[in-house]
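User: Please fill in residues for this 330-position structure.
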């Protein structure tokens, strides 16, 4: 019965995700063709564009379910097929997504160097110029699309870097095989083909309003949201608990598939998205006291304005001059 329910719910999810994308695309193209000034078109289109960017984040989270094998639990091929289809507009192979994300779950903020995007570790005392530089990198990463660019570079690296070098770049890719890489290249090529095909077959205007502009909006939204559940949380061996949950926000929680229940997800990654609210699991008290400084979705975004963690280590204990743990992105 659970498998039947899982299949029913997620078949509807896939249909809804594709259907709303098509409706938004039709609305966006329709607005672009209105016989009014360009300025008025953009005034009308901007709210639609923001929702398109948020809906591309829905693609990302459907891909997240597929990376965990929870989209269609009883059939891995079906799970990966539909996960790959939903991720095509993002040009992200589910194979690479799975490797990076599983590393994130296994090593989330294990120490200052590992899977801690907000942390810069430096040798000795940082100069004021260096501190300002790290703050600039952080603000660019969060508020100007930097984490999206970082993600894109990460995907390209593991598509084309020789397999023998992959694990040296990131331990997330231990046991990465040539077959994995070739499969990933094929999936990435299909995503590129989607973009190029829409551009060539339907024209630049339709491409921009259905994939081009929404992709830019997604990059901005992803960068702001991707770390709100882990920013300024605990660091240590309790990797399942270095996280926070946030209160439900009606529209956002629907679009983001209960992703606000992030503490429950990290403690029990096999719980499907639709069961997270009813199976909510609080953090242990010692972690909740440090990590739940806010339950507000929008406050969690704004809190990132506080900047990064800068950790100074004694010179004799640090072999690398500077290590920024964002190489271990989850």
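Assistant: Residues filled in for all 330 positions:
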């Amino acid at each position: 019965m659970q498998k039947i329910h899982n299949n029913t719910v997620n078949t509807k999810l896939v249909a809804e995700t594709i259907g709303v994308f098509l409706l938004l695309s039709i609305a966006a193209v329709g607005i672009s063709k209105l016989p009014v000034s360009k300025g008025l078109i953009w005034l009308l289109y901007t709210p639609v564009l923001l929702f398109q960017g948020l809906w591309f984040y829905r693609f990302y989270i459907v891909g997240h379910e597929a990376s965990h094998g929870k989209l269609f639990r009883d059939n891995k091929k079906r799970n990966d097929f539909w996960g790959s289809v939903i991720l095509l507009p993002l040009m992200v192979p589910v194979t690479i997504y799975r490797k990076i994300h599983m590393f994130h779950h296994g090593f989330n903020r294990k120490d200052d160097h590992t899977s801690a995007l907000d942390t810069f570790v430096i040798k000795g005392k940082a100069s004021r110029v260096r501190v300002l530089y790290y703050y600039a990198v952080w603000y660019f990463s969060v508020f100007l699309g930097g984490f999206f660019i970082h993600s894109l570079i990460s995907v390209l690296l593991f598509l084309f870097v020789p397999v023998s070098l992959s694990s040296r770049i990131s331990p997330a890719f231990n046991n990465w095989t040539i077959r994995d890489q070739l499969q990933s290249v094929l999936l990435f090529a299909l995503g590129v083909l989607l973009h190029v095909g829409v551009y060539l077959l339907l024209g630049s205007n339709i491409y921009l309003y259905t994939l081009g502009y929404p992709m830019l909006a997604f990059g901005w939204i992803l960068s702001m949201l991707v770390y709100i559940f882990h920013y300024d949380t605990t660091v240590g061996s309790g990797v399942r608990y270095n996280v926070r949950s946030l209160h439900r926000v009606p529209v956002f929680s629907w679009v983001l598939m209960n992703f606000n229940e992030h503490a429950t997800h990290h403690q029990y990654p096999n719980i499907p998205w639709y069961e997270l609210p009813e199976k909510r699991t609080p953090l242990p008290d010692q972690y909740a006291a440090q990590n739940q400084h806010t339950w507000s979705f929008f406050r969690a975004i704004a809190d990132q304005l506080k900047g990064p963690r800068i950790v100074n280590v004694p010179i004799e204990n640090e072999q690398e001059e500077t290590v920024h743990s964002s190489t271990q992105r989850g």
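For context: DSSP finds 13 helices and three strands in the chain.
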